[in-house]
Amino acid sequence: MKFLHISDLHIGKRLNEFSMMEDQIHILNQILKIAQKEQVDGVIIAGDIYDKPIPSAEAVKVFDQFLTSLADEHMKVFAISGNHDSAERIAFGAQLMSSRGVWLSPVYDGTAAKIVLEDEYGELCIYLLPFIKPAVVRHILEKEKEPDAQLQLPESYHDAVKTAVGRMDVDCSRRNILVAHQFVTGAGRCDSEDISVGGIDQVDAEIFDAFDYVALGHIHSPQSVKRDTVRYCGTPLKYSFSEAEQEKSAVVVECREKGVVCIHTVPLVPLHDLRKIRGTYLEVTARDFYQQTDTEDYVQVTLTDEEDVPDGLAKLRIIYPNLMQLLYDNSRTKQNRLVEFAECVERKSELALFAEFYELQNNQPMSQEQTEYVKQLIESCKT
Hints:
alpha/beta, 3 domains, globular, Purple Acid Phosphatase, chain A, domain 2
């Protein structure tokens, strides 16, 4: 059975006050064509369907058309809500849509939705786990517990997700796929994501050992974590200039007999690329500099002139109409950055500074246990 794994559509997103709707419609149409060409049985959408909990009418219409197109092609859809979505709004009409092969995650009530499919290799189970927080799981467990019963309630995201997975009662002899929207320890982040200080939202990949493939959303950079079958497909579009060098893609996953999962990616080509330009004003406005490029791309221009160019933004937009950011990098801005950095350091706590240093050195944030340990060390030094 073959699936197309996508996530973090963020339909309705505005980037530097530019609407991305036209680009999103373009990329969704491209994803539909890829699904048709690859002859997939279903499309997995691992959360953050919309950019806001209350999406615009236009955003809802775009997603509705995408779902309808997939259903018309007799492709199954398995979608969950992410941290940017309203779980209640995503779940609306879920029972009705399931009759057309479109499964949307319900609001988490202690049980993850389970869909059982069958092919020539036997049964395949797909579990839909929407984005969850520890408080949600604690509330459910408190409601269920017997009076006077001793119950250990989850305090961390790791414990919350571990509890949710444990309640699925996964049969490891079958083929199992999990669709989830969490931050797995070891994944690399970029500027367009919501970041929790100290890595409190981390979840260890070992929690997912019972699953043959884990279709993840939440992290915008495409990557696998710990094993090739625990995978973030990344956003279909670049949503920050920290992603300028990334190549976006959709992930095609084929589940054959138990233990055999074949994965390949298909590149996604945006309507407008997102890229960085650097040089003096005369350099970036020279015809030889830009004539071999697509000037309709979304660009960030960094000018290295020592003096600011009067009306630089307006002048540059004559050549680069979709200029999103104009920055300067010269002796004045470098001095300002040093001053701002010093002031920023003074405002931050010792824990926050150490957390930033740790992430810089290790390319991943501290775990909850490490954060608590460092916090205790800092407090002991003060006493």
